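Pasting as-is:
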Amino acid sequence: MKGKITFNSYWGIFTILILTPFLLDAILPILPTHDDWVGTTTPDFNPFFIKERFLFYGYHWRPFDTIVGYIVGLNPQQLFPTFNHYLIVIGHTICACCIFKLLDTLGFNYFSKNITTVFFFITPATMATVTAVDSMNQTYALVCGIISFLIYLKLEKGKYVAWISMIFIATWWKENGLMWALICPILAYGFDFFNQQKLKKDIIIGLGIMVVYALAIFLLPKDIIIHPDYEPGVLKVIKNFTKFLFTTFITTDYIYLLHRPSRNILAALFTFTLALPFLYYIFIRNIKIFCNKKMLCTILCMLIAVAPHIGTIFSMMHTYAGLAMLSVMIAYSIDTYKEHIKPIGFSFILFCLSAIIIDIHLINASVESGLIGKQMAQEAIKKTGKPVKSVYIIIIEDDYPKLSSFCVIPNEAFGWGLASQYETNYQWPKEIQDTTIERSNNCIQQANFIGKKKLEQHLFDCVWIVNHDQVRVLK
């Protein structure tokens, strides 16, 4: 009977609930690296929190991020980044459950829904988000986006107020949540929930939501400074779109394939070969089915979901924004096989094996990157000897290859010195300034000269010179 909870009907949900504690246990040792040290989800001690963080910060308006930063700031050593990891893994599990409900609402059978739900939960395409420390905004923006779609379809009384409210909540998590103002009507139209006339009306409402948000951003009392990396360009869009296609539709071990020091083509090929039969059945063998109205609208919605990232900065983390629409495509493809599901089931088992192998490798690499930053911070503190108020950090440019948040350049894992504050429970140093010099034959002498100059000017109490994963102290 429909609605009755049985294992056969909801085995995908039971599976992800069983896997959640294991995933959480695996990522808890991951420490902050790179942007994790400078975002608003780091411990925040600003006494003017509401005015200077909650309303608007830099070029972002992410109030929920700032709340997280305020909470972990209450007890950094205990809460950061543990609290962040709990939020992300719980959000990822909720998101997988929302995917199941989304697919149910669109009318897919239980076999399709369950396989797709497990796919979403374990696919390596999610790992850059799940293993990060500051990615709860990405996770909950998608959760709220899917909920906004369910509200849009199912609610009758007060539908538009609830829908618009949920879109703004998604957007306050992360800006790409705003894209659901267009995704909801387009996806609903694609699956024949209403006609073209209503589509036009609700697209206009969706565009109105975007205009209101843009006006609110410009009216907030804060100067908006656009980082150069966020400026769009034709070549950047092409490069980002290629990254999006690769990370979304191809399952392989990214580290073994793309990270030069770790490169192992045979291992990458092995994981890809395991995943290939499932990808073949879903996309290649069934490619003709993606040319109908439902799938064309779904593909358009996927492009809309990731458009803000493709136009600015796209990393593996940003694949997450398009995975709800990818899930719809996969469920639709599986649905067309009707009774011929044994090959799908067997190929999916192989995919799961590949995904688990890749996930473990990605998680371990993230742990190792974080530990490098921690060791550098401990080394700097030990060599400094006693608490100092201000530190000037000279970083010798490092040509060490990086890969997303999995394999991070040592000085970025070190957080340009910010990891040292965490190691002292944010007691010292209170002030950190850094500069980067080019790597050359005389870069050590150059770093020494700059450091001694700063000390002679009595501008800083101490100078740290960072060369790859080594820290030298001038006092």
